[in-house]
Amino acid sequence: MSIDQALIEKITLEILMKMQTEKAPSSCDGGIFDTVDEAVAAARKAYQELRTLSLETRETLIKAMRDVAYKNATLLAQMAVDESGMGRVSDKIIKNQLAAQKTPGTEDLTTQAWSGDSGLTLIEMGPYGVIGAITPTTNPTETVICNGIGMIAAGNAVFFSPHPTAKNTSMKIIRLLNEAIVKAGGPNNLLTSVADPSITAANEMMKHPGINMLVATGGPGVVKAVLSSGKKAIGAGAGNPPVIVDETADIEKAARDIVAGCSFDNNLPCIAEKEVIAVGCIADQLITYMQKYGAYLISGSNIDRLLEVVMTVKEEKMAEGCTDKPKKSYGISKDYVGKDAKYILSKIGIDVPDSVRVVLCETPADHPFVIEELMMPILPVVQVKDIDAAITLAVKVEHGNRHTAVMHSKNVDHLTRFARAVETTIFVKNAPSYAGIGVGGEGFTTFTIAGPTGEGLTSPRSFTRQRRCVLVDAFSIV
């Protein structure tokens, strides 16, 4: 054998071995790929195929997505709680079903037209292409269902960047949705992701030239990242929703609604009631009724002990020679985010029945439980002298997030004043906070509430760009 023949055989063998060890993009893996490049390329191909299909066909694909999400709502809820350790299965079932049923489809895309002496002009809603969507661990399946339906309804394909702590749950729903789309006659890989989601993969996705738009659902850090990307971006950030109860409210109903909203999925939703601001003359009555409906009241040293357990404390360094007391800053212990009230109370030596869903406490207005968004079923109550003080404090502790606020009152003037002052995307009157996303309230649902970038409750139209078509001196028949 000549040396040239040996070299040729060696090269051939190396190529064959490389082909066997490298995993090529496969339609059999339900949209999950090894690399960002592969996933984006597959989504781009699927997007081009989707563009050739009619709106009627697109709606058929969306129905298939709704059906499979609704059918697997319980499985997905259990997976999410098991993997992330957060939330309540029964409430996550409701959220999955809600996303499947009440996320808008192609009916949300409306055309505008102008007809006159100079002809006809149309403005239609066109897709961006491939959207990069970052999803949170708090709603790992609900956000994928909601964004998946809305973004495909708008004509896009989606690369999902799930939170690593709920990656298996997120991958499960991505696979289920892709399988349903293919069975309904649609293109494979309209929804893609990578098998090992990470911050590195998310950053690569945000910079990828094949991604046309970014949508981030999460905390301030991820929202800031997408807004700094140079791409069109929608940011759904954090909230710290206050709930005001004034002297005209139905106090018992308000108490029941507040406990229900605060405890929903153990306070993980950013819309959930985080602090109560009660006009003083009704505060004691409100607290009594809240205990009737599943809240457990703690006081004194137990509040201090709870603070030490669920929050981290950091003292800022003072300049040399400064005699002032060091300032403290507080953070949230992730070990208790989304945990049951019973579990949280057990950590300070209090044993309660499973029926307890909220830890209740009275605090001053500047307490860390009021200022910080806890995302756990701990609810501080602050007493104020009147509605003026209530509105002022509520606006302050909402921190300008413009996310969600709640009020219980029968005084229309009070309701109007608070709504104007707080300027939130969602304002719920005389109901649990979750009515604002369609649970027991009217209107569509979303799990991407874009306060920072102003889109509000996102829907398919949020994921489109306007396209104007002008025909001069024709099709104006009046």
Write the layout of secondary structure elements.
Layout: H1 3-21, E1 32-33, H2 36-50, H3 55-71, H4 73-84, H5 89-102, E2 112-116, E3 119-127, E4 130-134, H6 142-153, E5 157-161, H7 167-183, E6 191-194, H8 199-207, E7 213-217, H9 220-227, E8 232-236, E9 242-245, H10 251-263, E10 275-279, H11 280-292, E11 295-298, H12 301-310, E12 311-315, E13 328-332, H13 341-346, E14 358-362, H14 368-371, E15 378-384, H15 387-398, E16 404-408, H16 412-422, E17 426-429, E18 449-450, E19 456-457, E20 464-472
Helix pairs in contact: 3-5, 3-6, 3-7, 4-5, 4-7, 5-6, 10-11, 15-16
Word description of this protein:
- The chain is an alpha/beta fold.
- Helices cover 40% and strands 20% of the residues.
- The chain has 16 helices and 20 strands.
- The strands form 5 sheets. It has a 7-stranded parallel β-sheet, sandwiched between helices. Strands 1-6-5-4-7-8 form a 6-stranded parallel β-sheet, sandwiched between helices.
- β2 and β3 form a beta hairpin.
- α10 crosses α11.
- The longest helix is centred in the first third of the chain and has 19 residues, at 3-21.
- The protein starts with a helix and ends in a 6-residue tail after the last strand.
- Residues 16-28 have low confidence and may be disordered.
